[in-house]
DNA sequence: GCCGGTTGCGTCAACGTTGACGTAGGAGGA
DNA sequence: TCCTCCTACGTCAACGTTGACGCAACCGGC
């Protein structure tokens, strides 16, 4: 068993020799193509079983006219992030239905790294890629797209043309969140957001502004904190906000980790039942906290399914105009977003 | 740009023609092999750039003597599970350092599905696989291993020989958790576990038994609930336990979702500060709950790194005897596991 | 008997790349 | 001067598979 590794993988030639037919006939049998009699089919199948033959998809895709590798690439920011991994899972499920496997990579939101991974995927001749574009210029993505690689962007739209993309209702749902807070009587609603280079951050901020405007509230610039990359920065920002002379009575945290950071501070100050909080993006156990955290929940599996659907359609030759699919998010009320401003 | 998709990818032959050299020379230049003069190197590089040539790794690995595809397979239970995705990320990081990409799949703990995915990976001639074995017989894995495919199992050991594996200190850490509860004075400590077919469940149960024995406590069989596959079953089981005439004063929940289910029930009954709880496996926000949840934390990145290290060593021809690496877990005290039995 | 069509195979070359090997020309030594 | 060695290329075949095509045998119809 130890020297098993040295054994050469059997090929069609080996099967052909054993079954006393040509390799072409083996190919026909393996691929279920017509042109082989029942007796020959049986003989070839038996020979393949005996030898433990398994087709070599790389050789096959090299020779086939359609050049399919039955493999797609997925390039997300961080595969260990729950949002990303849920997305990956949804894409994977859909891919499996077509016998397609997924080459997965984390770009760390680094353009250089994303470019390198893209090259790696291209070298393996993947049939298409699903990408969460790294911040900043998308030249590498654009180049790849212009070469003709089927591509779908998720979470963030392309800065170039002719490319499908799937996002959620960042702006509308943010506005809805702010309007709900305003309806409760809040007039000092803070915005805490992620890096401003991210399209999603910008959209959510715009939604915040629209919400304020629609509720007839004036923007207090000192209540806006952005570029909070990670929970630690969010904590600091939250502390600063709460130390203002006229602190906010409600927080809209426009990203996952920011929500966690803010929650931590509210809790540390014992304010979790006095200051309202709505976060963008759901997270596990949000309902188990006290109070439960009201969030805008994205339909992550829905986004993944849509992205997969689009990429496979393109791979199958769909040449209809590019689509920007928007998968609706929903406000999930759990308590923290239903706190009215305190009377003091 | 739209008909760009029809453009054929340039090959070495195209580059060779433009640079007026042979394809072999192009090969030499692309791979940085000696045997090409500076002037020719420059000419070839220029031609490759002009044409936008990119090497075809599938053709290359077909022809090369080492047969490497620079791709490994990762087959976990559910890529959207935080444990699995953290593991994937760790493996991916290590793989990237060697220019290796990862084909990822979810087996859903279904042997049939795992077998099919394994065949898919084999068809793509991956250099090795990292697998979380699905419950029950591991025949498909064993067969693949016996063919010589480098393989590392994670989280659960193989039921067959000659295969590396990486697990955590399931038994020891479980015993430690039970001993801590016993030291606080608990005499009725319940065990709530996942499917008994899982090796980890068995190990954790054994650790529980060892803990009881070491503390001089007698096992009360009615306090042991297993096969709790998912949070819902865990809730039911917890309710049943709490309704006993002599209910447990402490719970040891031997899996993530089981912990969540039990927490939910304790909370619903207002017992979260009266009944002690220690869970196996950490989860996000465990520290934000009230009380914080005491858990046994696995070193997930550590496990992933170790698995990656092993698989790449095997791929590189390491033939030393198979290893069962054990990455230590640690008890993280947050409050729920430090509750003494109530005096009533 | 001849013709056209179908069935059931086989032969050959090619996909893009690289290993084995060949060779021309120059450098260097005896 | 000749022989050897090295450098810098080129030629050829092969990796495992499949598309294009060929061809013999058989069928049915007239």
From TrEMBL, chains A, B:
Taxonomically, what lineage is the organism? Bacteria, Bacillati, Actinomycetota, Actinomycetes, Pseudonocardiales
Task: Give the top-rank taxon of the lineage listed in the UniProt record for this protein.
Answer: Bacteria
Q: Does the keyword Cytoplasm apply?
A: no
Enumerate the PROSITE patterns for this protein.
Answer: HTH_LACI_1 (PS00356), HTH_LACI_2 (PS50932)
Per the record's keyword annotation, is DNA-binding included, yes or no?
A: yes
Domain HTH lacI-type, chain residue ranges per copy: 10-64
Q: Keywords, A to Z?
A: DNA-binding, Transcription, Transcription regulation
Give GO MF terms, alphabetically.
Answer: DNA-binding transcription factor activity; transcription cis-regulatory region binding
- From the Swiss-Prot or TrEMBL record, give the protein name: LacI family transcriptional regulator
């Amino acid at each position: 068993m130890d020297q098993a590794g040295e054994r050469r993988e059997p090929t069609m030639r080996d099967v052909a020799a054993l079954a006393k037919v040509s390799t072409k006939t083996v190919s026909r049998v393996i691929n279920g193509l017509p042109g082989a009699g029942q007796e020959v089919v049986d003989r070839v199948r038996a020979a393949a079983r005996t030898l433990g033959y398994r087709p070599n998809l790389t050789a096959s895709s090299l020779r086939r006219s359609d050049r399919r590798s039955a493999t797609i690439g997925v390039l997300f920011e961080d595969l260990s992030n729950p949002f990303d991994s849920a997305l990956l899972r949804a894409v994977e499920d859909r891919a499996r239905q077509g016998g397609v496997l997924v080459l997965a990579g984390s770009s760390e939101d680094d353009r250089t790294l994303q470019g390198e991974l893209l090259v790696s995927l291209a070298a393996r001749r993947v049939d298409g890629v699903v990408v969460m574009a790294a911040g900043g210029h998308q030249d590498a993505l654009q180049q790849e797209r212009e070469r003709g690689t089927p591509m779908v962007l998720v979470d963030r739209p392309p800065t170039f043309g002719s490319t499908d993309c799937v996002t959620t209702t960042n702006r509308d749902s943010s506005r809805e969140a702010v309007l709900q807070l305003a309806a409760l009587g809040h007039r000092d609603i803070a915005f805490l957001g992620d890096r401003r280079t991210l399209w999603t951050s910008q959209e959510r901020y715009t939604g915040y502004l629209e919400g304020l405007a629609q509720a007839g509230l004036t923007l207090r610039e000192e209540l806006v904190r952005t570029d909070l990359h990670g929970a630690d920065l969010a904590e600091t920002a939250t502390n600063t906000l709460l130390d203002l002379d006229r602190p906010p009575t409600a927080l809209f945290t426009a990203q996952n980790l920011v929500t966690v950071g803010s929650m931590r501070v509210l809790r540390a100050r014992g304010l979790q039942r006095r200051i309202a909080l709505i976060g963008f993006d759901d997270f596990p156990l949000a309902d188990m906290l006290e109070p439960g955290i009201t969030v805008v929940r994205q339909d992550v599996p829905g986004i993944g399914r849509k992205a997969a659907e689009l990429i496979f359609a393109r791979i199958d030759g769909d040449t209809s105009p590019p689509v920007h699919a928007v998968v609706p998010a929903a406000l999930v009320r759990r308590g923290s977003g239903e706190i009215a401003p305190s009377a003091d």
